[in-house]
Model the fold of this input.
Amino acid sequence: CNSRQYRFVDQRVWYYRRTFSLADYKDLGRAFLCFDGAGYFSRVWLNGELLGEHEGLFGGPITEVNGYLKFGQENELIVEITSCNYGIPDEEWADIYRSPDNKFLVPWNMVKDSGTSNGDFSTMGIYRDVRLEIVPPLHISRPYLTTESIGEDFALLHLSVEIVPQDLEELKMVSNDCNGGSGYVYGYCDGMNTVYTDKEVEIEISLTEKKSGTTVYKTTQTQRLYDSDKVGINPKYKEAQFFEKDICIKNPKLWYPIGLGNPELYDVRITLFSDGKMLDRQAFDFGIREFKLEKTAGVRMRARWGKFQAVINGKRFFIKGMNWTPLDQVLNLDERDYRWALELIRNQNVQLIRVWGAGNAPEHDVFYKICDELGILVWQDSFISNNSNPAWDKVLFQRQQSMYLYRLRNHPSLVIHCSGNENNPYDKTNACVWVWQYETEDIDPSRIRIRTTPDKGIAHIYHGFEPCWYRKLYKQLPLIGEAGTHSFPNAKTFRQLLSEKEYETVIEDFGSEKMAKSHKGLVNHITENDSWGMLKKIPALSHMCDTKNVTVSTLCECSGISSYEYYQFM
Done:
């Protein structure tokens, strides 16, 4: 119960401070201060100047800082952080965070909640990299490479990359008018004048096999820049210039998930030149693969019925998957933590993991990088979870959603986008599902989109019967999206966490009020410690031990055996 000593954390304002020095840049270009993960509310000062305020947990803030930096001397950066539930008493918060009035864009499993796994903590703070990114005034941005088709001895890819002119303020681009108005959609109705300047740039593209180091594709193409002041589009809706290129790779090495082939990767480099001088470069790993879903063998039961027969590079296969929940509640993770867990998954021949939206969406870039390397497919939930969100700020949700789509969309492991967990996408008040839908359609159209789980023949099953019945009752279903038997950890874990008296005392009635009094420490560690949570545990235990008279060690042993049996059937 030591975690209760830290329940004050989300009721304080926290400050981070550091100093740094910069060399004297002759040609600074544009400098952006970028936070990959900070939240929930933040304010940032650089050298005593307030840069701005930010809300959200899944990316940002990002701000241009050219006029605030000092060269050849010390700079001071200060960040203020408060949690989403700051200033709200715990007893009031319990009624807010899962109600339609909740305004905070945080999945319920990442905020203080005594009934679920996060317990006494709200996820908050600076939890990913902070960097100063310096780019030339003319640079490239947001590359997007997709596999268009795979033939017998070739693969056709398509590259799209944005060329950002020096007069475009990227952070002020308006992607659409989801906050009201329709100016964006009418933005080019008066015509477009692609008046070109005398300025030409060269874009070099190369693809190199990661394993062998062999460069299989390299080309340079010249592109003339148009005059962004004369394009005719309403200046409010001005965007970058797009460079598009079809790429043919002969005899490609394809990316496969576990058990079907090797997850072959290519090193992709896109370099921008002007007058023979290199200005900018973007590099990322890429896998050539085609993933799609076809109709499953079961009987169709509804009009809204999904396709869930997995096909990778023309091979149909029975997909074996699992749900991925947070490795660490306060997101204190590095590459070793991710690799340890993901290698365990690979060693069990699990081909797909669903990043569960109620707990941790989206993950760190390192997570997807390792999935790319190991051949693990990723189903990515958004962070809409378990209810409709009529009070959510739609513009804020759009910006958070867009940021992670741009960040993740080149990873070959990522194959499915889902709006989130156990929400109703047909509820007219659940407008964020529709924000999610048009953002994924526009920014990452190559991926499969699923409105929510469960829906369209997906089931979430936590009934406490013998698992062999699954084969009968759920045989016709296209997909089981969630299922499980809730078990306890190794008894050694509880020996470390409980007093000797509590560990040895017999539990007279598992799941009862009597147990809540005699085993407070144990109850504090039970996820979903409520009547529904207990109903999911008792049937799995009761056929192996007497739940009216059981010790902690027997509880751990029996639930472990029960869980093992269950997953064999699954």
User: Anything to note?
Assistant: The mean pLDDT is 91.
